[in-house]
Specification:
mainly alpha, 10 helices, globular
């Protein structure tokens, strides 16, 4: 059994808080939590008086008219201070730093999705013809990934390596040194954008068109029995025993959802929570006459 070291006062050394004058039991006492909040308020007010004044006004007068983007920006700005305070409170700077580094490590994937796939590939899908020699194209893309891995000096998965390769090619183009490989990469991405083998790539994942009168895609494999239906093979998730068919999202997939939320919030388009409204402010309905109220 692991023993927890105790100090002279009999308090676990592993349960100390990083804010002077506070101990773990205080986190269960409302009056002490209020005092801890006071410490936080004083620190934020000293660090950013303008932000704290806006925050204090918002929490004390929530009825004041404010736009949703203004509220969102205020919450995000305050969240940074909350994060710093909690990091110090629980003494986890190394863990937070590691998590921040791991998160930042994924940035090239999302820049690739926005700057390359969304802006260069998708608008030109009809213009990007299939490669005359698919194997040669695959070999060229593998070489681009290898160069990205060599430059990074560490192992990279294919999606991240492709994203870094695209970033280098776009940077060279910006510097006036365009490479033919840029067009090859566009051609390769167009060929695999809807390839089931790359369905797990978040950079290839965009909102799909909804057919409201055919919400569940079905196939009729047996012409002799038209009533027999199955789902598309690429959507099939086999169940092994009593295990879940949903393997849960990986960190990059979670970040992808967060990026999408941020994009909507900045434009005040977070219809998932607010619903979709017409110009007159009324909630719209979809073709199935279901109100889209969020």
């Amino acid at each position: 059994m692991k023993t927890i070291p105790m100090n002279n006062a009999g308090v676990s050394a592993e349960l100390r808080l990083g804010i002077a004058g506070f101990a773990y039991p205080d986190l269960y006492k409302p009056e002490r939590l209020k005092e801890l909040l006071d410490v936080f308020d004083v620190e934020v007010a000293a660090a950013n008086p303008e932000l704290f004044a806006a925050w204090d006004d918002y929490r004390n007068h929530p009825e004041k008219p404010r736009t949703e983007p203004e509220i969102s920006a205020l919450l995000v700005a305050m969240a940074a201070h909350v994060s710093q305070f909690l990091t110090r409170l629980f003494g986890i700077p190394s863990e937070v730093e590691a998590l921040a580094a791991a998160t930042a490590d994924q940035n090239p994937v999302f820049r690739f999705k926005v700057d390359f796939i969304r802006r260069r590939v998708i608008p030109n899908l009809k213009k990007l013809t299939a490669a005359a020699d698919p194997q040669a194209l695959e070999a060229e893309i593998r070489q681009l990934r290898k160069q990205a891995v060599d430059k990074a000096g560490r192992p990279l998965d294919d999606e991240l390596a492709t994203a870094l390769a695209a970033a280098d090619l776009m940077q060279s183009e910006k510097a006036g040194e365009p490479s033919p490989a840029l067009e090859s990469l566009k051609q390769w991405c167009a060929a695999h954008l809807h390839d089931p083998a790359y369905r797990h790539w978040v950079s290839f994942r965009f909102p799909e068109t909804i057919d409201h009168f055919n919400l569940v895609a079905l196939q009729q494999p047996n012409p002799q029995i038209p009533e027999e239906s199955i789902g598309p093979d690429e959507r099939l998730r086999r169940r092994d025993g009593f295990g879940l068919t949903d393997a849960r999202m990986k960190p990059r997939e979670i970040l992808s959802e967060i990026h999408y939320c941020i994009l909507c919030h900045e434009r005040d388009k977070d219809t998932c929570s607010k619903g979709i409204k017409a110009a007159d402010g009324k909630v719209t309905t979809n073709p199935l006459e279901i109100p889209l109220d969020g």
